[in-house]
Design a protein that fits this description.
The complex is a heterodimer of chains A (about 190) and B (about 290).
Chain A: E1 3-7, H1 13-22, E2 26-30, E3 41-44, H2 49-58, H3 62-70, E4 75-78, H4 80-85, E5 86-89, E6 99-104, E7 115-121, E8 125-132, E9 137-141, E10 146-151, E11 154-160, E12 163-166, H5 177-186
Parallel strand pairs in A: 1-2, 1-3, 3-4, 4-12, 5-6
Antiparallel strand pairs in A: 6-9, 7-8, 10-11, 11-12
Chain B: E1 3-4, H1 7-15, E2 21-25, H2 28-37, E3 41-44, H3 49-55, H4 64-73, E4 78-83, H5 87-96, E5 100-104, E6 125-129, H6 132-141, E7 145-148, H7 158-176, H8 182-189, H9 193-202, E8 208-210, H10 218-226, E9 232-234, H11 236-239, H12 244-256, H13 261-268
Parallel strand pairs in B: 2-3, 2-9, 3-4, 4-5, 5-6, 6-7, 7-8
Helix pairs in contact in B: 2-4, 2-12, 7-9, 10-12, 12-13
Classes of the chains: A alpha/beta (about 190), B alpha/beta (about 290).
């Protein structure tokens, strides 16, 4: 059984936990440094990236998570989680700065412009529901990064070795395929 | 095909706010302080509830200039309040690109019979509730997020506690009922039957429910999380305190770590005088904002 952490400072924690349990994983809620022990993978959920960053700093979690990332711990960031992983952010200072992508925040406008759509993702499957909420997108990727999905000409899902990041929220739907890809192919 | 304003997109937006604090602000400067303190969203207002109480008269949607100024100042979502049943105030806020509308009893109702049909809008709505019947009616009209009504602008947590306990006790009761008991319960609560079936199936409300109306200290925020709130709205408390920055940070931390009592002790030190507060019994029934809405 794989032991998966979910960063639980704020945001869509419950949804990821339920999905991981459906995939027969043991789930650890990560709120402090001790919770990072012996994980096989870590999920950085959707939420507000600015809030998560403040809380990561206050509980000295940023450096330990970055170190684990550099040591090869698989990490999957959705929406705000992608923003936390990105090596560079357009107009803002990066956070963990470990995944070789540049990310722009709020790329699709305000909440009234948030949307859902079906994506065909060659390595994962067809017609995967994707919910974009005040979503970011990947503006450029490093040379070793695999672009897994685009929508409207924007990169919305990419893999950089043991890092997976997406603009949207697979955790808000009942479709487990993207998380399953992370848990079985990357972790 | 790309679809905006779906139930999933609107409810999902509120799911992203879970575990966070939404702060009332009246200008760009306060908005920046709130964002820097770690607020997940802010509510742009012309006056905070305690000042609305003091000012009396009719309380309306904020001046669009204030809302615009606040939207331009921060990158986190911005909410704004429309009067209960005021279709045009809500449409104006939607047209301005506000991220969430609070159909709020803090403002003077525009309609004493009907709430907004919130499912008609692309923008999501949050509404207040005191019990499951009220909660279910608002969800039935299309609210994507709930909050307790509490008693706004009093600095007194007692009503918010009453409302969250009531809603959660009623949810537990519905979850424990057999299918054939739900229609009578729907009748008694004044709640849509299908929604009770959904609550029973999920084991919880289908939308997030935040605490609001009387949160005055970090311990109050933590109390509401302990009682099962998904997050916290803080109105008058923050910018009426002596040191808003410190106070705002303390509320955010107490909400995240609501069971870390040593931490709450630490962050509660020397916060200065909290809001003086009002004993609910001293409020004339006409002054009770929670009685607005139906």
């Amino acid at each position: 059984m794989k032991r998966m952490g979910v960063l639980a400072l704020q945001g869509a924690v419950r949804e990821h936990v339920q999905m991981l349990e459906q995939l027969d994983c043991e789930v650890v809620l990560v709120k402090q440094i001790a919770d990072l022990n012996q994980l096989d993978g870590l999920i950085l959920p959707g939420g507000e990236s600015t809030t998560m960053r403040k809380l990561l700093d206050r509980y000295q979690l940023l450096e330990p998570i970055r170190t684990l990332a550099q040591q090869g711990l698989p990490m999957f960031g959705t929406c705000a989680g992608l923003i936390l992983l990105a090596k560079e952010l357009v107009d803002y200072e990066p956070h963990l700065a470990v995944m070789d992508v540049t990310v722009a925040r709020n790329s699709y406008g305000r909440q009234v412009d948030s949307f859902e759509v079906q994506l065909d993702i060659p390595v994962i499957g067809q017609s995967i529901p994707a919910v974009f909420i005040r979503a970011p997108h990947i503006t450029s990727v490093g040379e070793n990064v695999n672009i897994l999905a685009e929508h409207d000409g924007k990169i919305v899902l990419a893999q950089d070795g043991h890092f997976l990041g997406c603009s949207f929220h697979p955790e808000l739907t009942a479709d487990t395929r993207i998380l399953e890809y992370f848990v079985t192919s990357i972790v | 095909m790309k679809q905006t304003g779906t139930e999933l997109v609107k409810r999902g937006m509120a799911e992203m706010q879970k575990g966070g604090v939404i702060m009332d602000v009246i200008n760009a400067e306060q908005a920046k302080i709130a964002e820097a303190a770690g607020a997940v969203a802010i509510m742009a207002l012309e006056r905070v509830p305690s000042d609305i109480r003091k000012a009396g008269g009719v309380a309306r949607m904020a001046d669009p200039r204030i809302v615009e100024e606040v939207m331009g100042a921060v990158s986190i979502p911005v909410m704004a309040k429309a009067r209960i049943g005021h279709i045009v105030e809500a449409r104006v806020l939607e047209a301005m690109g506000v991220d969430y509308i609070d159909e709020s009893e803090v403002l003077t109702p525009a309609d004493e019979e009907y709430h907004l049909l919130k499912s008609d809008y692309t923008v999501p709505f949050v509404c207040g509730c005191r019990d499951l019947g009220e909660a279910a009616r608002r969800i039935g009209e299309g609210a994507s997020m709930l909050r307790t009504k509490g008693e706004p602008g009093t600095g007194n947590i007692v009503e918010a506690v009453r409302h969250i306990r009531k809603v959660n006790a009623q949810v537990r009761k519905v979850v424990g009922m057999t299918e054939d008991e739900l229609m009578t319960e729907a009748k008694l609560l004044g709640a849509p039957f299908e929604l009770l079936r959904e609550i029973k199936r999920l084991g919880r409300l289908p939308v997030v429910n935040f605490a609001a109306g009387g949160v005055a200290t970090p311990a109050d925020a933590a109390l509401m999380m302990e009682l099962g709130a998904d997050g916290v709205f803080v109105g008058s408390g923050i910018f009426k305190s002596d040191n808003p920055e410190k106070f705002a940070r303390a509320i955010v931390e107490a909400t995240t770590h609501y069971r870390d009592y040593k931490l709450i002790a630490e962050i509660s030190k020397e916060l200065g005088t909290p809001m003086k507060g009002i004993d609910i019994a001293q409020l004339h029934p006409n002054e009770r904002m929670q009685e607005r809405g139906w």
